[in-house]
Amino acid sequence: MNELKLSDREDFTPLTTATSPHKQLSQNGTHHIHNKLMIWAHTISFVEIKPSIISKSGAQGLFLSETVRLINPHAVIEREFCHIHPYPDGSLHLFLPMADAKEIVVKGWGEFHPLAFFKEIPSNFIMLYSPRSERELSLVKEIILRSHSFAITSTNGKENTHVNI
After folding, report:
1. Listed residue (156, 157, 153) closest to 70, CA to CA
2. Which domains does the chain show, CATH number per domain?
């Protein structure tokens, strides 16, 4: 996977909750942008959308379908690699390679989960802030696809090419 290079996010860091449930409280995207993200999420190959098993706040989870042989257990919880919080929150949580997670946090696009680095929450599970514009929506889509790729890529960097159809 190539290196993620982000520009700094414009505006101040959004307010978020300091514990679980981890939610975004300010600078949320519009209902229109959120709907576009949800419609797009349904087009990702070999992904099923259903209620998150990680988030109990009505979030929709993105799960690797059973047709994909799971390779990277550090990128999912029971095949869920990402979930999108319902509008008006609109933020996401997802698993990423640690280098990507750090780039997102440093550039202001997200933050580590408040319980990250503890046994309950893996350190590479981060919050990605709600997209507020078409440009931010494009970036969020790219990051979701990186999370998807991370989930189907082994720790030695080889992508999973085995798909049962």
Report:
1. 153
2. 31-151 (3.90.1150)
